[in-house]
Structures are given as structure tokens and as C-alpha cells.
User: Which sequence fits this backbone?
């Protein structure tokens, strides 16, 4: 496995989202290495994207989104589930990619279809918010390339965002049984 470098993340968010598919998310905690293959993501395109957290501007919660690319943006939803995003593009843009589902590869038990279940299975929580993804304990790595068909659909759970809710900004690997919703 080869860890992704900052340049990977410092590109157009839609390109990064699609290219994250098939990569390995690695979290090492208490001496246990947990690895999952990323199979579903959603792109959030900055402050003009009404579904993005950054649409409300720079806040304590969103400051990591407006920071340098290649950092984790981890937050709690519904008061009970954590979600992990990968910050993309140049500083100040407020762009990120939500990791929606992974295929378990190593030391993962439980369901992983959905952003909250993904974080629970990998033991990711708010303590890892703003964590550098070039670190040695939480990172994304490439593995041997595989051929895959990428499906584009609308994002899930963003009906409040008007026309942005219908944009085809959710991507997943066709036929993968770990995708959260078809």
C-alpha cells in the first residue's frame, strides 16, 4: 500500500471523490490496524453548495473544511453518529468528500454501509477531527488498481438543499455489496 500525498487531495472535489473509490482507509488504534476499501462517497463542493456544511460559512465546526486539503473533517450527526469527510481543494474553498461506505478488509467487525456505521466500525470519532491524513495512524492508501464501474446518483439526506439535493454527487462502485443504498 502507498499512502496518498497532499497533492492527491488538492484537486477538484469531484475528481478526488471518484478516485477515492477503491482506495484503502486505514486507522491504527491501540496497536490494531483496521482497513476498509472505500466503496461509496459523496462530494460537497464548498460554500455555494447548499448541502455542504461550509454553506453556512466559516464556523468552529467547519474551519477544518476551509483549511488545507488532506485533513479529516469528523463531526456528529443526530447526536449519536460520527461521519468522516476528506478535505479537498485549496485552502479557503470549504470542499470535502464524505466517506459513505467501506468494504471490510482487515480487523473490522460490524456493518459498514453508511457513514455512521463506517466510523463506528473503524473507531473514528470527533477526537480525530482535523487529523492530518498523511499521519501514520489515520490515512488513505492506494492498492493495486482494479477495474470498476462508477455509478453516479444524487446525495442522500440533503433534501433541504433545494436543487443541490438532486445533483449527481454520490459515487459508488457498481455491484459492491457494501454500498449503503442503491
Assistant:
Amino acid at each position: 500500500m502507498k499512502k496518498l500525498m497532499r497533492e492527491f487531495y488538492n484537486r477538484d472535489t469531484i475528481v478526488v471523490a471518484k478516485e477515492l473509490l477503491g482506495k484503502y482507509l486505514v486507522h491504527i488504534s491501540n496497536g490494531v490496524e483496521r482497513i476498509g476499501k472505500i466503496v461509496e462517497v459523496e462530494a460537497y463542493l464548498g460554500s455555494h453548495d447548499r448541502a455542504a456544511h461550509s454553506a453556512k460559512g466559516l464556523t468552529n465546526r467547519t474551519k477544518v473544511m476551509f483549511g488545507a486539503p488532506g485533513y479529516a473533517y469528523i463531526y456528529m450527526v443526530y447526536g449519536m453518529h460520527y461521519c468522516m469527510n476528506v478535505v479537498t481543494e485549496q485552502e479557503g474553498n470549504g470542499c470535502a468528500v464524505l466517506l459513505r461506505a467501506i468494504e471490510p478488509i482487515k480487523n473490522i467487525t460490524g456493518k459498514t454501509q453508511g457513514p455512521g456505521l463506517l466510523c463506528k466500525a473503524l473507531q473514528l470519532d470527533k477526537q480525530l477531527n482535523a487529523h492530518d491524513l498523511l499521519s501514520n495512524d489515520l490515512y488513505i492508501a492506494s492498492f493495486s488498481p482494479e477495474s470498476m464501474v462508477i455509478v453516479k446518483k444524487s446525495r442522500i439526506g440533503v433534501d433541504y438543499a433545494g436543487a443541490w439535493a438532486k445533483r449527481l454527487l454520490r459515487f459508488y462502485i457498481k455491484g459492491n455489496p457494501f454500498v449503503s443504498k442503491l
